[in-house]
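re: that complex we talked abt at group meeting.

here r the seqs, copy pasted straight from the sheet so there may be weird spacing, ignore it
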Amino acid sequence: DQQVKQNSPSLSVQEGRISILNCDYTNSMFDYFLWYKKYPAEGPTFLISISSIKDKNEDGRFTVFLNKSAKHLSLHIVPSQPGDSAVYFCAASGPSSGSARQLTFGSGTQLTVLP
Amino acid sequence: SQTIHQWPATLVQPVGSPLSLECTVEGTSNPNLYWYRQAAGRGLQLLFYSVGIGQISSEVPQNLSASRPQDRQFILSSKKLLLSDSGFYLCAWSIRTAVIGSPLHFGNGTRLTVT
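got the structure back, here u go
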């Protein structure tokens, strides 16, 4: 049961253009969403997050949009740079009855920015 | 600032041999600690998490185990490795919270190949 889905395994974009990475979720209890970037042989690096009380969060070239009614979030990178080429994971979490929130990850999208 | 160390970076082990991967966190107290695995071409799967010394929760039944002998130390072990244990193992930490969403911060991972 995939609660977080990234349906595009890969995306190619020209340098300077906008990259749009998409993610869908099914669990309506999720209230916190994140994007991670991962280079080969390295751990994922946290990029940007958004809580369910917002519909947009921006940090430099990165903007995350949340559409709760559609259970959909997206990451926009503009302008895209060759160094942005990596695998991007979306993740989500909800309140926990214990002391730890667990992140549920999507399967990732390989972004390639062409020079 | 907080840092997370994970070692070794790569490991090749024969089937049936034991495993011990270690992870330590610096610059924070009482973190939540996590072990994730990324199989080839797939997303991140949560294996274990810990909210305190000696407190381990398992998410996936398998022949792996985890221990937390100290507040900022998390160990992943196996008595006998299987071929299917091959993968990229990631340790992560987060602040201790169940209510507020917070990002996980990952180590650089261990590439385990079971031959």
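couple things i noticed - Chain A touches chain B at residues 31-32, 34, 36, 41-46, 49, 51, 89, 91, 93, 95-108 (CB under 8 Å). Chain A is about 0% helix and 50% strand.
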